[in-house]
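thread: overnight batch results

M.L. [08:02]
morning all. the overnight job finished for the chain we discussed friday. pasting input first so we're all looking at the same thing
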Amino acid sequence: MSASPVVLAIAGSDSSGGAGIAADIRAAHHLGATLRFALTAVTAQSDRQVTVIHPVPPDILREQIRLALEDGTVGAIKIGMLGSVAAVETVADLLNAYRGLPVVVDPIVASSSGHRLLDDAAMAVFLERILPLTTLLTPNLPELQILAAAILDAEPPATIAEQAGVLLGAGTKAVLVKGGHDQGDAAVDLLFQSGGDTPDRFASPRRPVAIRGTGCMLSTRIAIALASGETLATSCRSGKIQMDEWFERAVVKENAHIG
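M.L. [08:03]
and the structure it wrote out:
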């Protein structure tokens, strides 16, 4: 990885510090990358609930992104929570103006506590305007099903491969389906690419610990690798390895606390 890659994270804040921009900053700091960020919304939340979501005005969101990209040093863009039609449209306009940068999208549809973070109107604009500009989409299994169903306006297909195919058909260049919600001894992520025959498979042991913000950290890690010039498959593999290291450290820390 090259020295100090620069990534722009476009996401919401999490007042508990668990996810969102806070998780993006932790990941970038750990990897020695420079993270610029644009806030889409300010939230009040805990590990258990989201009580307030305050969208950042579109003109402020636009200026944050414009200034971050102005000097040409950003090597990749990571997008997390957008939350509103206005935010989706603002981000899409600016992505169109800065084509050529890899765009990693962690599709934040709902919080881990179940609070809906992207309503139907915002979802429709997201699918129409953001998805075709996406280099890599990183849904977990529930998000994959929700997105496929929204595109089809019907029940999603039965298999992961078919659901990923729906997203590829809607415009994204690649889909990394995260296996954290699956069962089994291993957590398996699958990378589907447009035109590819079989997915790349990235497996790691399933660790007995829960960490909030893992989707944020993984997508930021992948964006940093892409900004450094790594291929998409290598970036996803690097992200999987890094996440396993972070999970392993969390297990050690938890065991030490219990002991």
